[in-house]
Amino acid sequence: MTSAPRDREIAVAAFAQTVHRRTSDELSEVEMLMPVLHEVLDSTGLKTADIDFTCSGSSDYLAGRAFSFTLALDGVGAWPPISESHVEMDGAWALYEAWTKLLTGDADTALVYAYGKSSPGSVRDVLTRQLDPYYVAPLWPDSVALAALQAQALIDAGYTDEPALAAVASRNRAAASTNPHAQLRGPVPQGDHLVQPLRTGDCPPIGDGAAAVILAAGDRARDLCARPAWIRGIDHRIEAHGLGVRDLTDSPSTRLAAERAGAFERPVDTAELHAPFSSQEVVLRKALRLGEDVDVNPSGGALAANPIMAAGLIRIGEAAARIHRGRSDRALAHATSGPCLQQNLVAVLEGEPR
């Protein structure tokens, strides 16, 4: 059972992120990360010494060197020694680890951060290293080509078509016009086919960015935040590794994670979906049973800014921020990793009654 016990409630008390950019050549990962860490701590009045547990998410493949995440600890400040952990995943999974740490009672506060610099290399090639190393990776199918296979399967099954995918992309980027952190804001041309049936506009921008959240338990969260975003449930599941044994038009792992997180118990008013490709929003809407009355990706989602390894954590942060601001009462946040929505995490956040 992955729903938080009522005697140990955990909340997102603060969220901060960078202004996401196509390139940040002049900045190291530490220099990109430090302002975000300062911002999220300052918003709660906490110091590094007040944090009981720190967890990060990043990828050594993006940095091109082993154990690159240890350098990022310079931005946190690891002396005097801190309780720290790292996941080679999107920061949403680092948040999951921190959530479990707080549930045990070993910590009352946690700092979770994630970052990724995609601009130095070819993301489409780097992400092939996620694939099955024996049968698929040697063929070097890149991330866009695999997403195009999924999009074509959806079109062949009658779930969508190219104009509908263009509408998804347009709606997301229109929503991002009010998001000062988004990389793409407002109308973006669909452009030519990148890999048919996906056009340039159906694909996420390549860019650099970072994000951080503060988790806190019980009354500690109420002390740090006027309206905490309580994590009522969180769960993550994975599809079969072999793409050929999956139905790419559906996402059973997302549906199961949502069920275990309690997403279907009551309607949500907001959903932040980590759908880097327009076609993936079609799959996620169906798996999560989201109707037209749900405000999907009011931040613009991953089609407006997709810093790899941070975009999933940003979905949780954006959903929590809407609760903090009183714009949402019950929100769903989703994060994904791997080709064609292979791994999926779902969190349900609620604000206290107003």
Largest sheet: 10 strands, mixed
Question: Terminal Cα separation, in Å?
Answer: 29 Å
| Rg over CA atoms | 19 Å
- What structural class should be given to the helix and strand makeup? alpha/beta
**Fraction in helix:** 25-40%
| Strand order in space, largest sheet | 3-2-4-7-1-8-12-11-9-10
Mean pLDDT score, rounded? 93
How many individual helices?
11
The proportion of residues in beta strands is 15-25%
Global outline = globular
Total beta-strand segments? 12
Please give the oligomerization state of what you see: single chain
Poorly predicted residue ranges: none
| Helix-strand pattern | EHEHHEHEHHHEEEHEHEHEHEE
Q: Would you give an account of this structure?
A:
- This protein has 354 residues and is of the alpha/beta class.
- It has eleven helices and twelve strands.
- It has helices spanning 29-42, 60-63, 69-76, 91-103, 123-126, 143-156, 162-175, 218-224, 252-261, 278-288, 311-324; strands at 10-17, 53-57, 84-87, 109-117, 193-195, 198-199, 208-217, 229-238, 270-272, 295-296, 330-337, 343-350.
- A ten-stranded mixed sheet has the order 3-2-4-7-1-8-12-11-9-10, sandwiched between helices. Strands 5-6 form a two-stranded antiparallel ribbon.
- The longest helix is centred in the first third of the chain and has 14 residues, at 29-42.
